[in-house]
Each structure stands twice: as C-alpha cells, then as structure tokens.
UniProtKB/TrEMBL annotation:
GO molecular function: magnesium protoporphyrin IX methyltransferase activity
Protein known as: Magnesium protoporphyrin IX methyltransferase
InterPro entries attached to this UniProt entry: Mg_prot_MeTrfase, Mg_prot_MeTrfase_C, SAM-dependent_MTases_sf, Small_mtfrase_dom
Organism: Rhizobium rosettiformans
Coiled coil start-end: none
EC number: 2.1.1.11
Biological process annotations from GO: chlorophyll biosynthetic process; methylation
Length: 238
C-alpha cells in the first residue's frame, strides 16, 4: 500500500463517516430508536464490543491503549472505567467532537474516570500518538484490502508492546450476499466498501512475515447478528 493509496482510502472513509452518514452513526451508537437493519447492526456491534473488551485485563491501570477508529467513544469509556489511559483516534472530526461531548457529559454525571481519555481526529498510524500497551481496532480494517490491512497492522505493531485486538469481515456466501444487497439500501444505510477475508488465514500469513516474528495468534470469535457479521482476532507479542 503506497502512501497515496492509503491517503485516498482514508479520505473515502472520512467522507462517509463525517458527511454522508454522521447522524445515522450517532443514532446507531446511542440509545435512540433505529430501523430494523440498524437495530441488528447495533446489537451485533454491542456483542462485538463486549468481546473485545473481555480480551483485555479487568484491571487496566497503567495500560496505554489506542482505540483506533473510536467513533463516538463507547469502547473507550468502558476501558477508562477499568483504569486505562486511552487515546481515541477517528478520521471523522465530527464523531470526535461527539465523543468529547459524551465524555464531558459522563464525567459531569458520574464523576471523574478511573483512567483517562483523549480524543483526536486524524490518522491512527500517526507516530506522534506514541507507543501503546494494546491496540483495539473494531470494524476498521474491514474497509481495507487484505494486503493493506496487514500493512496497517504492521505499522501499529511497531508501537505496541503487548496485544492487538481487531476485527475482520469473514468471507462467506451469506456475507457477500448481504454486501451485494446493501447496494440497494438508501444511502444512509450504506457503509464504505467492506473486504471479506478468511480471518484465520490472513492472521496466519501475516505472522509469517519477518516483521511479525515476535507475535503469535491469540483468540478468535465470530459475531453474526442480522446484518452485522464480523470476526474478532487477537495477536500477542511473545
């Protein structure tokens, strides 16, 4: 993946989440009523978010965690409640503004967090964000071609000392059919292009690269709820 290709792809994703479907994603990650399609996506995302959070220690005091593609910050809030210092990054400046407002409201109603959070709009690969104990990337890599997703993970691994947890879109006839059907949905119900893969194969091939010589495969879990299908994967620095 060239830098130009990466910039082009991130620009497409930013355009979708910052302009085309901002209000829809705010509703999806909140508690307002949503359509039947979005209701299944919300339920699936809640289950996936719980899975990813459960793969991290219950006590995260002293951990610095990157929430890549943090959106409205729901996962970040769960991690800081367990003591983590979280850096939430999202391409959408509008979603980051929404996350900051939610953080302010939560602190006002529940008091100071056990950990800390800082939200930033921009590139999750920016080295200025520093080093992390763990990286969580929920439904981010699904928007990149497999080879590009591996390169993104390599870049993140260089600055991660313990654990990377991420989701991939598992290739199947059902998912491919749903993605094809999605093209006929109204624009607000669409998402940017998703690239189905064989998650276990992608991770196995990734770990054969010399740059991942100090990493090993961890847990895997698939969530399939209505129009939401995603597979959680874990790699651990050995």
């Amino acid at each position: 993946m060239s830098q130009a290709d990466y910039i082009r792809r991130t620009g497409e994703i930013e355009h979708y989440f910052d302009r085309t479907a901002l209000d829809a994603w705010k509703r999806l990650t909140g508690d307002q009523p949503v359509s039947g399609i979005r209701a299944t996506v919300r339920k699936g995302r809640e289950e996936m978010r719980g899975t990813l959070a459960s793969w991290l220690p219950q006590d995260l005091t002293g951990w610095r965690i990157l929430d890549a593609g943090c959106g409205s910050g729901v996962l970040s809030f769960e991690l800081i409640a367990r003591g983590a210092d979280v850096v939430g990054i999202d391409l959408s400046a509008q979603m980051i503004a929404h996350a900051r407002q939610r953080a302010h409201d939560l602190e006002a109603s529940h008091g100071r967090f056990k950990g800390s959070v800082s939200f930033h709009s921009g590139d999750m690969l920016d080295p200025r964000h520093g080093r992390f104990d763990a990286v969580v990337a929920m439904d981010v890599l699904i928007h990149y071609r497999p080879a590009d997703a591996v390169r993104v993970l390599h870049s993140l691994a260089e600055r991660t000392s313990r654990q990377m947890i991420f989701t991939l879109a598992p290739g199947s006839r059902l998912l491919r059919a749903m993605l094809a059907a999605g093209k006929v949905f109204p624009r607000g119900n669409r998402a940017p292009a998703i690239y189905p893969v064989d998650p276990s194969r992608l991770v196995a091939e990734m770990l054969h690269h010399p740059e991942f010589s100090h990493w090993q495969a961890g847990r895997s879990h698939k969530v399939a709820v209505g129009f939401y299908t995603s597979q959680a994967m874990e790699v651990i620095r050995s």
